[in-house]
Amino acid sequence: MQLVDTINEIPMFNRFTESEKKMFAKLEHSLLGFKKDDVIIREGDTFTSLYLLIKGTIQITKTGYSTPIAKLSPGALFGEMSFFTKKPRHSNVIANENVLVMKLDKAFFEKVRPEIKDKIKDYIIELLINRLDSMNESLSKISNFARVSTLNK
Fold this sequence. Notes:
By secondary structure, the protein is of the alpha+beta class.
């Protein structure tokens, strides 16, 4: 399967034209491969790249916790918090299998046209809003559970 075919399966690229998708497929300098159990991001790292998972799965872990925080599949963006805040990484990202990621860093954004940057920005905003909605829903459930537990004592 060619990279452009793989890109077609990733939700972020739904907003891109065919020629823009082909342009992404040619950005081989931004593609990084990792093997199973490779650490892609280490908690505390200070580099600020954003990544798009193209192939494979990864897990997000945090030092001191025995179970992974999340498992991400192709199409997932990760590393966005440090990308925007320039703060050290809050968690580890580990390859569950052989993975391919696209590194979206300052050099990447200098190479793409403004309309591409805007489409990526819009996708990231949409993604972060969805995560915030999900977090708010989870907090509401936790709050309700805590309130009911307190009333039942």
